[in-house]
Protein backbone atom coordinates (compact mmCIF):
# COMPACT_ATOMS: atom_id res chain seq x y z
CA UNK A 1 0.00 0.00 0.00
CA UNK A 2 1.48 3.39 -0.93
CA UNK A 3 3.00 5.33 1.89
CA UNK A 4 0.99 8.50 1.04
CA UNK A 5 -2.28 6.56 1.40
CA UNK A 6 -1.19 5.20 4.79
CA UNK A 7 -0.26 8.72 5.85
CA UNK A 8 -3.64 10.01 4.68
CA UNK A 9 -5.38 7.39 6.88
CA UNK A 10 -3.18 8.37 9.78
CA UNK A 11 -4.18 11.99 9.36
CA UNK A 12 -7.92 11.56 8.95
CA UNK A 13 -8.99 8.22 10.41
CA UNK A 14 -6.60 8.56 13.30
CA UNK A 15 -6.19 12.08 14.69
CA UNK A 16 -3.32 14.00 13.10
CA UNK A 17 -0.29 13.02 15.18
CA UNK A 18 1.87 15.83 16.47
CA UNK A 19 4.83 14.96 18.68
CA UNK A 20 3.21 11.59 19.50
CA UNK A 21 0.16 13.39 20.94
CA UNK A 22 -3.08 12.94 18.95
CA UNK A 23 -4.86 16.20 18.07
CA UNK A 24 -8.14 15.43 16.38
CA UNK A 25 -9.95 18.67 17.12
CA UNK A 26 -7.61 21.37 18.36
CA UNK A 27 -10.47 23.55 19.65
CA UNK A 28 -9.10 26.21 21.99
CA UNK A 29 -5.92 24.16 22.62
CA UNK A 30 -2.81 25.96 21.34
CA UNK A 31 -0.02 24.00 19.69
CA UNK A 32 3.66 24.82 19.96
CA UNK A 33 5.93 25.79 17.09
CA UNK A 34 7.27 22.28 16.47
CA UNK A 35 3.79 20.80 16.39
CA UNK A 36 2.58 23.40 13.87
CA UNK A 37 5.65 22.86 11.71
CA UNK A 38 5.04 19.12 11.76
CA UNK A 39 1.49 19.70 10.51
CA UNK A 40 2.79 21.82 7.64
CA UNK A 41 5.32 19.15 6.63
CA UNK A 42 2.70 16.39 6.66
CA UNK A 43 0.27 18.54 4.65
CA UNK A 44 2.90 19.23 1.99
CA UNK A 45 3.62 15.50 1.80
CA UNK A 46 -0.06 14.65 1.35
CA UNK A 47 -0.61 17.32 -1.32
CA UNK A 48 2.47 16.41 -3.38
CA UNK A 49 0.59 13.72 -5.31
CA UNK A 50 -1.93 16.19 -6.78
CA UNK A 51 -1.58 16.71 -10.53
CA UNK A 52 -1.64 20.51 -10.70
CA UNK A 53 -0.46 23.43 -8.53
CA UNK A 54 -4.05 24.58 -8.11
CA UNK A 55 -5.16 21.21 -6.83
CA UNK A 56 -2.15 21.04 -4.47
CA UNK A 57 -2.98 24.44 -2.94
CA UNK A 58 -6.65 23.54 -2.64
CA UNK A 59 -5.78 20.40 -0.69
CA UNK A 60 -3.30 22.28 1.51
CA UNK A 61 -5.98 24.82 2.34
CA UNK A 62 -8.47 22.12 3.34
CA UNK A 63 -5.91 20.28 5.50
CA UNK A 64 -4.49 23.38 7.20
CA UNK A 65 -7.78 25.14 7.90
CA UNK A 66 -8.74 23.11 11.03
CA UNK A 67 -5.45 24.06 12.73
CA UNK A 68 -5.45 27.81 12.01
CA UNK A 69 -6.69 28.78 15.49
CA UNK A 70 -4.40 26.32 17.29
CA UNK A 71 -1.36 27.73 15.46
CA UNK A 72 -2.42 31.39 15.55
CA UNK A 73 0.73 32.33 17.49
CA UNK A 74 3.18 30.87 14.96
CA UNK A 75 4.14 32.96 11.94
CA UNK A 76 5.62 30.17 9.83
CA UNK A 77 2.39 28.16 9.95
CA UNK A 78 0.25 31.24 9.25
CA UNK A 79 2.50 32.20 6.34
CA UNK A 80 1.73 28.88 4.63
CA UNK A 81 -1.93 29.25 5.61
CA UNK A 82 -2.02 32.72 4.03
CA UNK A 83 -0.39 31.39 0.86
CA UNK A 84 -3.03 28.65 0.67
CA UNK A 85 -5.83 31.21 1.10
CA UNK A 86 -4.27 33.42 -1.59
CA UNK A 87 -3.99 30.55 -4.05
CA UNK A 88 -7.64 29.64 -3.36
CA UNK A 89 -8.73 33.25 -4.10
CA UNK A 90 -9.80 33.89 -0.50
CA UNK A 91 -8.18 37.31 -0.62
CA UNK A 92 -9.65 38.89 2.50
CA UNK A 93 -8.87 35.80 4.60
CA UNK A 94 -5.33 35.85 3.21
CA UNK A 95 -5.04 39.54 4.03
CA UNK A 96 -6.02 38.94 7.67
CA UNK A 97 -3.71 35.93 8.01
CA UNK A 98 -0.66 37.55 6.45
CA UNK A 99 -1.14 40.75 8.45
CA UNK A 100 -1.08 38.55 11.55
CA UNK A 101 2.22 37.00 10.39
CA UNK A 102 3.80 40.41 9.84
CA UNK A 103 2.60 41.52 13.27
CA UNK A 104 4.39 38.52 14.78
CA UNK A 105 7.46 38.95 12.56
CA UNK A 106 7.66 42.20 10.50
CA UNK A 107 10.58 40.78 8.46
CA UNK A 108 8.97 37.49 7.42
CA UNK A 109 10.02 37.28 3.77
CA UNK A 110 7.50 34.73 2.47
CA UNK A 111 4.63 36.59 4.12
CA UNK A 112 5.79 39.93 2.67
CA UNK A 113 5.92 38.46 -0.86
CA UNK A 114 2.41 37.03 -0.64
CA UNK A 115 1.00 40.05 1.20
CA UNK A 116 2.18 42.34 -1.60
CA UNK A 117 0.36 40.08 -4.08
CA UNK A 118 -2.84 40.21 -2.01
CA UNK A 119 -2.71 44.01 -1.81
CA UNK A 120 -2.27 44.24 -5.56
CA UNK A 121 -5.22 41.93 -6.24
CA UNK A 122 -7.41 43.92 -3.84
CA UNK A 123 -6.59 47.09 -5.76
CA UNK A 124 -4.17 48.69 -3.28
CA UNK A 125 -1.69 49.22 -6.08
CA UNK A 126 0.66 51.69 -4.46
CA UNK A 127 0.84 49.86 -1.14
CA UNK A 128 1.70 46.64 -3.00
CA UNK A 129 4.36 48.41 -5.06
CA UNK A 130 5.94 50.00 -1.97
CA UNK A 131 6.11 46.64 -0.21
CA UNK A 132 7.68 45.02 -3.27
CA UNK A 133 10.26 47.81 -3.30
CA UNK A 134 11.21 46.89 0.28
CA UNK A 135 11.66 43.26 -0.78
CA UNK A 136 14.02 44.30 -3.59
CA UNK A 137 16.37 45.80 -0.99
CA UNK A 138 16.67 42.56 0.97
CA UNK A 139 19.88 40.56 0.60
CA UNK A 140 18.61 37.31 2.09
CA UNK A 141 16.23 36.30 -0.71
CA UNK A 142 17.16 33.17 -2.71
CA UNK A 143 18.19 33.99 -6.31
CA UNK A 144 15.02 32.59 -7.86
CA UNK A 145 12.83 34.53 -5.39
CA UNK A 146 14.79 37.74 -5.95
CA UNK A 147 14.32 37.29 -9.70
CA UNK A 148 10.55 36.84 -9.26
CA UNK A 149 10.29 39.96 -7.09
CA UNK A 150 12.32 41.95 -9.63
CA UNK A 151 10.14 40.86 -12.56
CA UNK A 152 7.01 41.64 -10.56
CA UNK A 153 8.39 45.09 -9.77
CA UNK A 154 8.86 45.83 -13.48
CA UNK A 155 5.34 44.63 -14.26
CA UNK A 156 3.70 46.69 -11.54
CA UNK A 157 5.77 49.79 -12.30
CA UNK A 158 4.60 49.68 -15.93
CA UNK A 159 1.00 50.00 -14.73
CA UNK A 160 1.56 53.37 -13.09
CA UNK A 161 2.10 55.13 -16.38
CA UNK A 162 1.11 54.01 -19.85
CA UNK A 163 1.04 55.67 -23.25
CA UNK A 164 -1.25 54.36 -26.00
CA UNK A 165 -1.05 55.55 -29.60
CA UNK A 166 -3.82 54.74 -32.06
CA UNK A 167 -4.02 55.38 -35.79
CA UNK A 168 -7.09 54.61 -37.91
CA UNK A 169 -7.24 55.08 -41.68
CA UNK A 170 -10.46 54.53 -43.61
CA UNK A 171 -11.81 54.73 -47.12
CA UNK A 172 -15.53 55.33 -47.28
CA UNK A 173 -18.54 56.60 -49.13
CA UNK A 174 -21.01 59.25 -47.92
CA UNK A 175 -24.26 59.93 -49.78
CA UNK A 176 -24.69 63.38 -48.15
CA UNK A 177 -21.39 65.01 -47.27
CA UNK A 178 -22.99 68.43 -46.63
CA UNK A 179 -26.07 67.09 -44.75
CA UNK A 180 -28.33 69.02 -47.13
CA UNK A 181 -32.06 68.65 -47.68
CA UNK A 182 -32.92 66.87 -50.90
CA UNK A 183 -34.86 69.84 -52.34
CA UNK A 184 -34.82 71.54 -55.72
CA UNK A 185 -37.04 74.37 -54.48
CA UNK A 186 -38.37 75.81 -51.22
CA UNK A 187 -41.76 77.41 -50.75
CA UNK A 188 -41.72 80.50 -48.51
CA UNK A 189 -44.98 81.39 -46.85
CA UNK A 190 -48.04 80.89 -49.07
CA UNK A 191 -46.69 82.12 -52.40
CA UNK A 192 -42.97 82.71 -52.92
CA UNK A 193 -40.86 79.82 -54.18
CA UNK A 194 -37.07 79.78 -53.84
CA UNK A 195 -35.18 77.72 -56.42
CA UNK A 196 -32.14 76.03 -54.84
CA UNK A 197 -28.94 75.79 -56.89
CA UNK A 198 -26.85 72.65 -57.35
CA UNK A 199 -24.48 73.58 -54.51
CA UNK A 200 -27.41 73.41 -52.06
CA UNK A 201 -28.23 69.83 -53.08
CA UNK A 202 -26.78 66.77 -51.30
CA UNK A 203 -23.19 66.07 -52.38
CA UNK A 204 -22.08 62.44 -52.39
CA UNK A 205 -18.67 60.92 -52.92
CA UNK A 206 -15.74 58.83 -51.73
CA UNK A 207 -13.80 60.16 -48.75
CA UNK A 208 -10.59 59.38 -46.92
CA UNK A 209 -10.76 59.47 -43.10
CA UNK A 210 -7.83 59.62 -40.72
CA UNK A 211 -8.04 59.48 -36.92
CA UNK A 212 -4.91 59.72 -34.76
CA UNK A 213 -4.92 59.75 -30.95
CA UNK A 214 -2.47 59.64 -28.05
CA UNK A 215 -3.51 58.74 -24.51
CA UNK A 216 -1.38 58.94 -21.37
CA UNK A 217 -2.68 57.25 -18.21
CA UNK A 218 -0.94 57.63 -14.84
CA UNK A 219 -2.00 55.66 -11.76
CA UNK A 220 -2.12 57.66 -8.54
CA UNK A 221 -2.51 56.56 -4.95
CA UNK A 222 -6.22 57.46 -4.90
CA UNK A 223 -7.16 57.05 -8.57
CA UNK A 224 -5.90 57.86 -12.04
CA UNK A 225 -5.01 60.81 -14.28
CA UNK A 226 -5.72 60.71 -18.02
CA UNK A 227 -4.48 62.94 -20.83
CA UNK A 228 -5.67 62.43 -24.40
CA UNK A 229 -5.36 64.23 -27.69
CA UNK A 230 -7.05 63.20 -30.93
CA UNK A 231 -7.19 64.55 -34.48
CA UNK A 232 -9.83 63.57 -37.02
CA UNK A 233 -9.78 64.53 -40.70
CA UNK A 234 -12.15 63.86 -43.60
CA UNK A 235 -10.98 64.66 -47.12
CA UNK A 236 -12.64 64.04 -50.47
CA UNK A 237 -10.91 61.21 -52.31
CA UNK A 238 -12.25 62.27 -55.73
CA UNK A 239 -10.92 65.11 -57.85
CA UNK A 240 -14.44 66.55 -58.10
CA UNK A 241 -14.58 66.92 -54.31
CA UNK A 242 -11.56 69.24 -54.39
CA UNK A 243 -13.51 71.91 -56.25
CA UNK A 244 -14.76 74.72 -54.01
CA UNK A 245 -18.46 74.13 -54.73
CA UNK A 246 -18.23 70.41 -53.91
CA UNK A 247 -15.58 70.51 -51.21
CA UNK A 248 -16.75 69.51 -47.74
CA UNK A 249 -13.58 68.64 -45.83
CA UNK A 250 -13.56 68.45 -42.03
CA UNK A 251 -10.94 68.46 -39.29
CA UNK A 252 -11.48 68.17 -35.55
CA UNK A 253 -8.97 68.44 -32.71
CA UNK A 254 -9.92 67.26 -29.20
CA UNK A 255 -7.85 67.66 -26.05
CA UNK A 256 -9.01 65.86 -22.89
CA UNK A 257 -7.95 65.82 -19.25
CA UNK A 258 -9.68 63.60 -16.70
CA UNK A 259 -8.99 62.92 -13.01
CA UNK A 260 -10.56 59.77 -11.54
CA UNK A 261 -10.97 58.96 -7.85
CA UNK A 262 -11.45 55.45 -6.42
CA UNK A 263 -13.12 54.14 -3.26
CA UNK A 264 -10.82 52.92 -0.50
CA UNK A 265 -13.17 50.47 1.21
CA UNK A 266 -11.45 47.30 2.28
CA UNK A 267 -14.37 44.99 1.53
CA UNK A 268 -14.91 46.09 -2.05
CA UNK A 269 -12.46 46.19 -4.89
CA UNK A 270 -11.53 49.66 -6.09
CA UNK A 271 -14.03 51.15 -8.50
CA UNK A 272 -13.95 54.46 -10.35
CA UNK A 273 -16.66 56.31 -8.44
CA UNK A 274 -16.00 59.96 -9.21
CA UNK A 275 -14.27 61.92 -11.95
CA UNK A 276 -13.93 65.44 -13.23
CA UNK A 277 -12.45 66.57 -16.49
CA UNK A 278 -11.88 69.29 -19.06
CA UNK A 279 -12.24 69.03 -22.83
CA UNK A 280 -11.24 71.54 -25.48
CA UNK A 281 -12.53 71.09 -29.03
CA UNK A 282 -11.73 72.84 -32.33
CA UNK A 283 -13.64 72.10 -35.55
CA UNK A 284 -12.64 73.27 -39.03
CA UNK A 285 -14.79 73.13 -42.16
CA UNK A 286 -13.00 73.52 -45.51
CA UNK A 287 -10.01 74.97 -43.70
CA UNK A 288 -11.95 77.66 -41.78
CA UNK A 289 -12.57 77.60 -38.03
CA UNK A 290 -16.26 76.86 -37.59
CA UNK A 291 -16.71 75.83 -33.97
CA UNK A 292 -14.87 75.86 -30.64
CA UNK A 293 -15.90 74.61 -27.21
CA UNK A 294 -14.60 74.17 -23.69
CA UNK A 295 -16.32 71.55 -21.51
CA UNK A 296 -16.31 70.87 -17.78
CA UNK A 297 -17.26 67.30 -16.87
CA UNK A 298 -18.42 65.74 -13.58
CA UNK A 299 -18.95 61.99 -13.63
CA UNK A 300 -19.94 59.25 -11.19
CA UNK A 301 -19.81 55.49 -11.71
CA UNK A 302 -20.87 52.69 -9.40
CA UNK A 303 -21.53 48.96 -9.69
CA UNK A 304 -25.12 47.74 -9.70
CA UNK A 305 -26.04 44.65 -7.71
CA UNK A 306 -27.63 42.39 -10.33
CA UNK A 307 -27.76 38.60 -10.23
CA UNK A 308 -28.19 38.24 -13.99
CA UNK A 309 -25.29 40.43 -15.18
CA UNK A 310 -22.27 42.49 -14.18
CA UNK A 311 -23.67 46.02 -14.47
CA UNK A 312 -22.47 49.56 -13.86
CA UNK A 313 -24.46 52.79 -13.57
CA UNK A 314 -23.01 56.03 -14.94
CA UNK A 315 -24.21 59.57 -14.33
CA UNK A 316 -22.70 62.70 -15.84
CA UNK A 317 -23.08 66.47 -15.83
CA UNK A 318 -21.42 68.48 -18.58
CA UNK A 319 -21.17 72.27 -18.86
CA UNK A 320 -20.03 73.49 -22.29
CA UNK A 321 -19.17 76.97 -23.57
CA UNK A 322 -19.72 76.93 -27.33
CA UNK A 323 -18.26 79.55 -29.68
CA UNK A 324 -18.70 80.05 -33.45
CA UNK A 325 -15.94 82.37 -34.76
CA UNK A 326 -17.75 83.05 -38.05
CA UNK A 327 -21.15 83.79 -36.50
CA UNK A 328 -21.11 84.83 -32.86
CA UNK A 329 -24.91 84.92 -32.76
CA UNK A 330 -24.70 81.10 -32.49
CA UNK A 331 -22.63 81.19 -29.26
CA UNK A 332 -24.26 79.24 -26.46
CA UNK A 333 -23.89 77.75 -22.98
CA UNK A 334 -24.90 74.08 -22.85
CA UNK A 335 -25.96 72.20 -19.70
CA UNK A 336 -26.25 68.45 -20.12
CA UNK A 337 -27.41 65.70 -17.75
CA UNK A 338 -26.75 62.10 -18.77
CA UNK A 339 -27.32 58.66 -17.31
CA UNK A 340 -26.13 55.31 -18.57
CA UNK A 341 -26.31 51.61 -17.78
CA UNK A 342 -23.66 49.15 -18.98
CA UNK A 343 -24.19 45.41 -18.44
CA UNK A 344 -21.91 42.50 -19.26
CA UNK A 345 -24.57 39.84 -19.80
CA UNK A 346 -22.11 37.06 -20.67
CA UNK A 347 -18.35 37.09 -21.27
CA UNK A 348 -19.18 37.57 -24.97
CA UNK A 349 -22.23 39.85 -24.90
CA UNK A 350 -22.59 43.41 -23.56
CA UNK A 351 -25.50 45.87 -23.61
CA UNK A 352 -25.35 49.65 -23.12
CA UNK A 353 -28.08 52.26 -22.80
CA UNK A 354 -27.82 56.00 -22.32
CA UNK A 355 -30.32 58.82 -21.94
CA UNK A 356 -29.55 62.53 -21.75
CA UNK A 357 -31.19 65.94 -21.78
CA UNK A 358 -29.40 69.18 -22.62
CA UNK A 359 -30.45 72.81 -22.20
CA UNK A 360 -28.71 75.01 -24.74
CA UNK A 361 -28.95 78.70 -23.80
CA UNK A 362 -28.24 81.25 -26.51
CA UNK A 363 -25.76 83.93 -25.38
CA UNK A 364 -26.64 86.32 -28.22
CA UNK A 365 -29.63 86.93 -30.46
CA UNK A 366 -29.70 83.48 -32.05
CA UNK A 367 -32.38 82.54 -34.53
CA UNK A 368 -34.58 80.02 -32.75
CA UNK A 369 -33.44 81.22 -29.32
CA UNK A 370 -32.80 78.66 -26.58
CA UNK A 371 -33.21 75.00 -27.35
CA UNK A 372 -33.64 71.65 -25.63
CA UNK A 373 -32.00 68.44 -26.86
CA UNK A 374 -32.95 64.90 -25.78
CA UNK A 375 -30.92 61.81 -26.65
CA UNK A 376 -31.45 58.08 -26.34
CA UNK A 377 -28.72 55.56 -27.20
CA UNK A 378 -28.97 51.76 -27.26
CA UNK A 379 -25.99 49.58 -28.17
CA UNK A 380 -24.93 45.97 -28.06
CA UNK A 381 -21.66 44.11 -28.64
CA UNK A 382 -20.99 40.45 -29.25
CA UNK A 383 -17.43 39.11 -29.13
CA UNK A 384 -16.55 35.95 -31.03
CA UNK A 385 -12.87 35.07 -30.49
CA UNK A 386 -11.07 37.67 -32.67
CA UNK A 387 -14.26 39.14 -34.08
CA UNK A 388 -16.46 41.85 -32.56
CA UNK A 389 -19.97 42.62 -33.79
CA UNK A 390 -21.57 45.93 -32.78
CA UNK A 391 -24.98 47.46 -33.37
CA UNK A 392 -26.08 50.85 -32.05
CA UNK A 393 -29.03 53.16 -32.46
CA UNK A 394 -29.39 56.80 -31.47
CA UNK A 395 -32.58 58.86 -31.37
CA UNK A 396 -32.36 62.64 -30.80
CA UNK A 397 -34.97 65.35 -30.55
CA UNK A 398 -34.15 69.06 -30.74
CA UNK A 399 -36.75 71.71 -29.93
CA UNK A 400 -36.17 75.46 -30.32
CA UNK A 401 -37.86 77.95 -28.06
CA UNK A 402 -38.87 80.42 -30.79
CA UNK A 403 -39.53 80.34 -34.53
CA UNK A 404 -37.11 81.05 -37.35
CA UNK A 405 -39.28 83.12 -39.64
CA UNK A 406 -42.91 83.69 -40.54
CA UNK A 407 -41.98 82.33 -43.98
CA UNK A 408 -40.92 78.98 -42.52
CA UNK A 409 -43.77 76.91 -41.05
CA UNK A 410 -45.65 80.10 -40.14
CA UNK A 411 -43.00 81.09 -37.62
CA UNK A 412 -43.38 77.99 -35.46
CA UNK A 413 -40.34 76.88 -33.42
CA UNK A 414 -38.21 74.23 -35.08
CA UNK A 415 -38.78 70.64 -33.94
CA UNK A 416 -36.18 68.22 -35.25
CA UNK A 417 -35.97 64.44 -34.84
CA UNK A 418 -33.12 62.24 -36.01
CA UNK A 419 -32.40 58.51 -35.99
CA UNK A 420 -28.97 57.01 -36.61
CA UNK A 421 -28.32 53.26 -36.82
CA UNK A 422 -24.79 51.89 -37.14
CA UNK A 423 -23.54 48.34 -37.57
CA UNK A 424 -19.86 47.47 -37.29
CA UNK A 425 -17.69 44.40 -37.64
CA UNK A 426 -14.19 44.45 -36.17
CA UNK A 427 -11.77 41.65 -37.09
CA UNK A 428 -8.49 41.33 -35.18
CA UNK A 429 -5.70 40.61 -37.65
CA UNK A 430 -2.89 40.59 -35.09
CA UNK A 431 -2.29 41.83 -31.57
CA UNK A 432 -2.09 45.50 -32.62
CA UNK A 433 -3.89 45.55 -35.96
CA UNK A 434 -7.60 45.26 -36.76
CA UNK A 435 -9.85 45.62 -39.79
CA UNK A 436 -13.16 47.46 -39.32
CA UNK A 437 -16.21 47.61 -41.57
CA UNK A 438 -19.08 49.94 -40.67
CA UNK A 439 -22.42 50.88 -42.20
CA UNK A 440 -24.53 53.83 -41.04
CA UNK A 441 -28.01 55.03 -41.93
CA UNK A 442 -29.08 58.50 -40.74
CA UNK A 443 -32.50 60.12 -41.17
CA UNK A 444 -33.52 63.56 -39.88
CA UNK A 445 -37.06 64.99 -39.98
CA UNK A 446 -38.29 68.46 -39.08
CA UNK A 447 -41.32 70.73 -39.37
CA UNK A 448 -38.96 73.01 -41.36
CA UNK A 449 -37.93 71.09 -44.47
CA UNK A 450 -34.59 72.88 -44.73
CA UNK A 451 -33.43 70.78 -41.76
CA UNK A 452 -34.51 67.44 -43.20
CA UNK A 453 -31.95 65.10 -44.71
CA UNK A 454 -30.92 61.49 -44.95
CA UNK A 455 -27.55 59.86 -45.53
CA UNK A 456 -25.88 56.49 -45.93
CA UNK A 457 -22.27 56.01 -44.95
CA UNK A 458 -20.03 53.02 -45.43
CA UNK A 459 -16.34 52.67 -44.59
CA UNK A 460 -13.52 50.14 -44.44
CA UNK A 461 -10.76 50.95 -41.97
CA UNK A 462 -7.44 49.70 -40.64
CA UNK A 463 -6.86 50.34 -36.95
CA UNK A 464 -3.34 50.26 -35.47
CA UNK A 465 -2.58 50.43 -31.75
CA UNK A 466 0.94 51.00 -30.51
From TrEMBL:
UniProt-listed SUPFAM superfamilies: TPR-like (SSF48452)
Residues annotated as signal peptide: 1-20
InterPro entries according to UniProt: TPR-like_helical_dom_sf
Keyword annotations: Signal
Record-given protein name: DUF560 domain-containing protein
Amino acid sequence: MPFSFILFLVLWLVPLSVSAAPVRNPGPQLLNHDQCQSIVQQVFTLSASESSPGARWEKRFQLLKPYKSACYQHGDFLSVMGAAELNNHRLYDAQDTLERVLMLNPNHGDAMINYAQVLNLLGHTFAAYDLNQQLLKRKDLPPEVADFVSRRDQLWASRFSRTDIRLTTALGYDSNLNTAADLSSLTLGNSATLVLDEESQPVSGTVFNLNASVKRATALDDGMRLWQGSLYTRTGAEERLQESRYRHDQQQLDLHYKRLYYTRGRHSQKQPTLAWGLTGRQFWYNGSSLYQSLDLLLEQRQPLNATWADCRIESEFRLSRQHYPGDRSQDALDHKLQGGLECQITPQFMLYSQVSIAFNRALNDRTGGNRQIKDLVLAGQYRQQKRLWSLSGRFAHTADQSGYSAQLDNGNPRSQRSLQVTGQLRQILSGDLALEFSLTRLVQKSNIVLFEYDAERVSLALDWRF
